[in-house]
From TrEMBL:
Annotated Cyanobactin oxidase ThcOx second domain residues: 130-239
Lineage: Bacteria, Bacillati, Actinomycetota, Actinomycetes, Kitasatosporales
Taxonomic source organism: Streptacidiphilus alkalitolerans
InterPro entries for the chain: Bacteriocin_Proc_Enz, Nitroreductase, Nitroreductase-like, SagB-type_dehydrogenase, ThcOx_dom2
Protein name: SagB family peptide dehydrogenase
PANTHER family reported for this sequence: NITROREDUCTASE MJ1384-RELATED
Amino acid sequence: MTVTQDLFPSLDANAPPLRRLLRLRPDVLVAADGDDVELTHPWGRQRVHALGAATVARLALLSEQDTDADQLTEGPDAGRLLRLLERFPFLVTTVLADRDGDALATAVPIARSATLPADAPPDVPAHTPVVLSRFAYLRRLPEQNTGACVVESPLASYRVTLHQPSAGAFVAALTSLRTVAQAAAVAGLPVAAGEALAGLLAGTGFLETAAGADQATDPALWDFHDLLFHSRSRAGRHDYPSGGIFAHPDQPQLPAVPGAGPREDGPGVDLPVPDWAQVVYRDPSFSEVLEGRRSVRSYGDQPVTVDQLGELLYRAARVRRVIPGDPESPTAYDIVDRPYPAGGSTGELEVYLSVADCEGLEPGVYRYDAAAHRLQPRHWSGAADEAAFRELLTAAWRATNCTVEPQVLITVTSRFGRLSWKYSQIAYALTLKHVGVLYQTLYLVATAMGLGPCGLGSGDTDAAARALGLDWTSESSVGEFLIGSRPDGPAAVGRGFADVVAESREAVN
């Protein structure tokens, strides 16, 4: 007995053809009103008039049980019902099942753009070479769906649930170009079942033909992870609950302001609080600062000072106030007010300093306590911690094209749980938006102060976790920013608007 025969005994070579079953998505509500019907679903609500009582009844039945696709072509109202399903294909699931109704695979529409014909896609002939889309991925479902997995893709408007291991093996076999018959043999599926499953996968956007490795539809400039992240963190390309849905009420909230962390024994460094009147008197105008903002990759002879760092952090990143949530509400949480805007005011971003050269501070790693306006040293517990600190500084130096030895590296981290406790699907996208506004705030304040700011485009997650003493799955680096003294010369502020408006208009005209 071969391994595949041992793994997949449920479908033998003599199994009859698979049934194609149709059903409305489980979250579609069918409300009958005489000859009319109202359909309520995740993408809205439609009222369809003058269907006829028989069609309304059959449609209601489709919301309760699977129906063989062939049966929908029978009866005097068959044409009307099929036209209705073709009008709303994004509400119709397609199931491949054996004669007893045991499912092999289910295609569920996850976007309103789903266009699979309601009467199911045709089989792909056994001799046809096909390959899995490079954007497709396979993952297991939670434990309550033991044995099942799903294949998804940011390019597909369907999610296909694979109910049997043989179906998952068939998908895995198509990671290289094979005929349908060859993939079915690898998976231990009858050829007819392979043809039907390939038809379902092709019709829902997961397979490419040999001629295609379909370059016409492959977005060549996208990496897999970028396209997936984009499609899943915005509405329109998936049906997962999204936004502030408070999906984790059983998990404790993270504190609004974190307490002392690892390797923080000993006193902190209280930073001076800037004087409002002096700051307002000294600062250039907003327009001068905005037009003068530049990334600075060279420093002055004297390093930045601890007083300057203190003012920068106070003006850009401190906690201004914490507004307690209602303890009686299961969805209430403490609001964190900071100088930069943030979705939900969750205050998940934290700031760490890797100090190489700063007047008034010893070299090393510090956590900025944004509520107390204090630096908490994170002492090295051994040579490995110090080596990770050096790795961070070296990575920052490389990120500037090896043009400047860092004076102070600001590492921005995210305590992800502060966001994901409330927000689903969009939590990581939100934290990156927050990093962007913090970057701009640091740029503007540093420019106004006459410092040398430079946001970096990348960083080392693993080195940061080791250097800062963090569990990267709970709190991880999401941004890096260099601060140093500005070289001697005129103040870096704008003295007028710089643009290409006139030149662009002349080119058009």
